[in-house]
Design brief:
Layout: E1 2-3, H1 21-26, E2 35-38, H2 45-53, E3 59-63, E4 79-82, H3 89-95, E5 101-107, H4 112-116, H5 142-148, H6 151-162, H7 167-176, H8 183-190, H9 199-215, H10 217-231, E6 232-242, H11 245-257, E7 276-278, H12 288-293, E8 301-307
Parallel strand pairs: 2-3, 2-5, 3-4, 5-6
Antiparallel strand pairs: 1-4, 6-8, 7-8
Amino acid sequence: MYWVTSTSPITMSSYHVPVLLHESVDGLAVKPSGTYVDCTFGGGGHSALILSKLGPEGRLIVFDKDEDAKKNAPEDSRLYFVASDFRFIKNYLKFLKITQVDGILADLGVSSHQFDTPERGFSLRFESALDMRMDQNAAVSAGDIINTYEQEELARVLYEYGELNNSRRVAAQVVSARPIQDTVKLKEVLSPFLRRGEEHKFLAKFYQALRIEVNDEIAALKDLLHASLELLALGGRLSVISYHSLEDRLVKNFIRAGNFSGVPEKDFFGNPLVNMKAVNRQVIIPTEEEIKQNNRARSAKLRIAEKIG
């Protein structure tokens, strides 16, 4: 992790097209002298807009555990790049002697670069090894899960993270066909479950489940949300873009109640104990025009909250 030492603007690249760019950054209500965190740097699009709103005294700390994202780091003395998972946000900010921040942004999910790089194994479009690691130094890949998980554990992953109602039968089919080393073999093994016209939908759910398990995405999001309560100053903003119902439900419930059940605790008099309030009453979704320009934005949902206590 490092401060970047000189100043030049970030240029948009094909690495990743930022989703809900202006809506998510505007939701932070950036103060020129404030301190902000971009938890998912990627191609740097959201960070570029935040930096454009910061003055000389402002600071932006960015996180990305994908080594490829380092290449997009701008030369700007106000920016600090952390090559790590955002779930460790508290540790790194403590190291930087930062106790409070004015805003936290997270654009969850997979970057366009990760989808479009065949050997990373994130996309259904390519023939590749079963990888799906956002951190390429991580020990466990999608192939490890496919080939080593017990049948019941694999069924749990497919049900919880892919919401596949037939997860037990699917897991049994996978286990019986081991070893499975690449996407071609995997699709062959899953072919009995691919109904005509719904092949992509099923495979997308299966891939989603594997990706979430490989990268421990749900636990990481929970860690980030808990940390946001401690790190945000009063009036600070949290801006989160999610791409599937599992993530969105966690964010919505946490904003509403400060926990993941969505039911706030109450004080002795029965008053709800809440620390955040939703800035946007309705979830913000991309416009039809944005979806036309970037089809990967179609499932995005943005929720913005302000710390009130």
